[in-house]
Structure formats: structure tokens, C-alpha cells
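Please, structure for the following, as C-alpha cells.
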Amino acid sequence: MPTDSPANTSVQNRRENFRIDDLLATSVRKVADGVLPVARMIPVALSDSGRLGAGMKLLSHEIDPSFTLMILEAEAKLGVLLDFYKLPRQNEEKDSQPSMTKLLLQINTKLDSLLDFHRITRRQNATRVKEVSLSASGIKLTSHEPLAVGDLVEVHMLLTTDQPCWVVVGGSVARATPLPGGDGCLVAIQFTTTNGAIQEAIATYALKKQKEQRISQRLLEP
């Protein structure tokens, strides 16, 4: 009966534990009844109006320079709005060459500030685009719901692969650090044992995003 060689096992472990810092649409909620969700993948169906066009498909290495300029312009306009309303700029580092990930995170943070300023309510457990650290074995992210070590949780995340899909997994909180001001906490979640297809999907996504980030960084370099 064939068995995995030590070399193959080592490669597989490195692949599963490979971690990527990224912006990801996610939500996390505490499992009240102690019953973890069934790990599953839910394909995202795109309508014809949502497609790029018949036979068209954006490849990971095709980054439109005009899109980058639009992101820069949107980030600058939001900065003007924050200055107009005299709102504080949180978690914004001065960077002469910000990556696309940093720019999108800044835009998301500024939009949250404007929504809060105008008292536009949002569901606290709604899916949000946030900064995460992801691997096939776990995820680190912020949660607006108070969580403690040992809590069982359900995590939803949108993986934008060639075939975008929602991944639903269960896990347990390994670490929880309260955020300043009492607005939730930073948690590290260890996924429960999932099937190989889900682990492979997360690992493949992480490796793909690393490649895209390196390409984006090169494009932003002078």
C-alpha cells in the first residue's frame, strides 16, 4: 500500500501552513449551540451582466494601469472628505509607494469612518472586507463580536479564484486580543479538520495572491 514519503509530507505541510496577508471579504460569528458548521464551498454564480464579456477573462498578470490611477484618485478624494469633516485618519501609514492592498485597505477604513460619522448603521455580523492573515490551517482577523480563547466560531470568506466561491469553515479561537476602545478584538482562529478540497482551495488562493502582490509591487516601483 503506497504511503507518502517524508519529502512529499514536508512539501504538503509547507503548502498548508503557507500564510498570506490580504484583504478578504469575511465574517465570523460565535457558535452558540456548540455545533460547528459543515465545511463547504459555495460557488458564486455570475450573471451575464456581471461578466467581463464573452470569452474575456482577466489574468492574474494583467493589471490595468488606468485601474491603479482610479484607485489612487478615489483614495485621494476620500482623504479630502475626511479633512472636510475633520475626521481622524486611523491605521494609515505614510507610504510614498503604497501597494494596491494598502490603498484598498485605506479606502475601506475611510468609508467606515464616513458611515460612522453620518450614523449610518451596519449589521455588526455582516460580511466586511478586512485585513486578514490566512493559511489553510487558520485565519487571523478582527472581530466586532467579543470572543475568547476556546470559543467555537463559524467563518465565511470569499475566495476570488478563477471560479470565485464562498468557503464556510468552523474553528476555535486560539488567541484573542482586545482592540483599543473596546471595539472588538483581534483573533487567531484554528480551523477544525476540513476536507482536502477546501484546504487545497485555500492554499492555492494564498499562493496565487502572493504572486499577484509581487507583480503589483513591481508595477508600483519606479
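The beta strands are 20-30, 40-43, 128-135, 138-143, 152-159, 165-178, 185-191. The chain is about 35% helix and 25% strand.
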